[in-house]
Amino acid sequence: MNKGWNGAMDDGTNRLGWMLDDALRMPETRYAILLSADGLLMAHSERISRDEAERQAAGMAGLQSLARSTAEFCGDAATTWRQTVNEFDDGYVFLVAAGPGAYLAVSATQHVDMETVSFRLQELVQRLGKELTTPPRPGAGSPA
Fold first, then answer.
1. How confident is the model at residue 2 (pLDDT cuts 50, 70, 90)?
2. What is the phi/psi pair of residue 107, to 5°?
3. Which intervals hold domain Roadblock/LAMTOR2 (predicted)?
4. Strand 29-36 with 41-44, pairing
5. How far apart are CA 55 and CA 77, in angstroms?
6. Which stretches of the chain are DSSP H helices?
7. CB-CB contact of 60 with 68 (8 Å)
8. CA-CA distance, 11 to 142, in Å (whole number)?
9. Alpha-helix runs per DSSP H in 44-113
10. Which end of the chain is more exposed for a tag (fewer CB within 10 A), N or C?
11. Is 98 helix (H, G, I), strand (E, B) or coil?
12. Please, which pLDDT band fits residue 131 given cuts at 50, 70 and 90?
């Protein structure tokens, strides 16, 4: 497993939350969480509490697992899962692959531009991948 994906919230700082908040500057978006494949919260946007984000992360991991198990229905059981979109009366939940063993989930209202959200999520996945695989600089974040 890529060590860069581990520990994004282990110290309770939510150090990648700002990237999720940036993604939510799109109209009609609500919340964003970054989670591990086993349902552990890695980061969350400011608009959602940590407790709620942890609960949603566990559910999203199960949702992704269910979606992945239907790959054969798409033609090949070995095909790679990339994204799941769930529609509700009040909006959508987008769940996308965000790297080895990590997923990004975003909630939006029923008025959101789905194409724009999908595009922005792919951009965010690229940014998160670079951030999480770059080792921290020595002394970064320590008091001067």
1. very low
2. -105, 140
3. 17-108
4. antiparallel
5. 29
6. 17-23, 50-68, 114-133
7. no
8. 14
9. 50-68
10. C
11. coil
12. confident
